[in-house]
Amino acid sequence: MTDTATEMATQAATTEAVAAPVSPLERRLDISITLADIEGDIGARLKNIARTVKMPGFRPGKVPMSLVEKNYGGQARSEAIGVAVESALESELKAQNMRVAGYPNIQPVTSEGGGKLNFTATFEVYPAIALGDVSGQSVERPALVVTEAEVEQTLDVLRKQRMVYSEVQRAAQKDDRIVIDFVGRKDGVEFPGGKADNHTMTVGADAMLPDFEAAVVGMSAGDKKTFDLTFPADYQAKDLAGSTVQFDVTVNKVEAAELPALDAAFAKALGSKDGDMDAMRVEIRANLEREVKKRLEAKTKQQVMDALLAVNSFDVPKALVDAESRQMADAAVRDMEARGMAVKGFPIDPAWFADKAIRRVKLGLLLTEVVKAHDLYAKPEQVRAVVDEFSASFEDPTEVVRWYYSQPQRLAEAEALAVENNVVEWVLKQVKVIDKSVAFDELMGNAG
Predict the structure, then answer these.
(1) What is the pTM of this model?
(2) Structural contact between residues 24 and 100, judged by C-beta atoms closer than 8 angstroms
(3) CATH code for residues 4-124
(4) Residue 118 pairs with which residues in a beta bridge?
(5) In terms of CB atoms within 10 Å, which of 57, 96, 122, 215 comes out highest?
């Protein structure tokens, strides 16, 4: 509200305001403006309209004010009242030192007469946060040093991702890929979803029920088998849960997996220009160390945030939670679209994200107070270190750094992360830190 009309309304409007709490963070202000005080603003708006308005029979700027007022008086009056109400509300909020979260809901109320208009503004305010003492909390800081064992394990995973299959004339065993026809019957009647032709499955991949996989182990191409299978009591299809059915299975093909050799061809398949496996191992180790560092820091940060929340309890504005929930719902839709899923018409309810949204909003408000209280703002060199870390895994890090610094909003992401890192470092100095080794599979989410 910085235009001329707003300034005029700020100087002219007479207000009467009373704050009345409705809920822990909800406030209500009763605003009364004197119509006589905004007549000047209405007149100024009409004169401004008259300069450019076009009407049949008149040149621009020569339309009589009586006609301008007749056609545009209501618009000018509405705009002037709106500006006066907003200015009065802004002035009162400043006087009472209130910080509005979200947008005020302004509603007119019955006039008391005397040339006044009355309004009620209902809104939420930001909570007053008195920071709690975090020194009594403890944080388990996970630790893991990447060794050659993790490098070889990663190479093994990369090899399995590039497995080739060739048909074999033997019985199916674990890790084989088989092509089968099957039909399932309950009480002699085929049930929905229980039949498929030329279905491909990998033995031991747990894509089928364990009893089904166990039944096809040892079968060769051309073999047929009939066996009973009992569905788990908690099976997703309620009409099959806990039921015993009969399957007929025919094996059409058995294919054995063959891992690629650790040679120059494999290295080139992973992006190495010269096919040097030793250099590839060095690169894999560097990538692993970056990923492990990122995950260790993320786990530590989560515990730090938990420690802060444990000693700081406060209400959060519903408006901020609703906005965050909507953003998370929108992000979920974009993620599904990026994965190639058809989401048109799919109901994504922001309420599903309410709990996570509350945590995010609380942490956002809390971190702001911690940063302010302990001067933990990001320094330029800290922001640059974050950007350099982002860029390290790219083929041309310099270009990525230039990309970040070319747009303020991109750099803001790095700055926010640098601030979070400062908070984590500060909290770790206050709490009891317990260093604890973590297994590689557990850290990477591979634990069975």
Answers:
(1) 0.71
(2) no
(3) 3.30.70.1050
(4) 32, 109
(5) 215
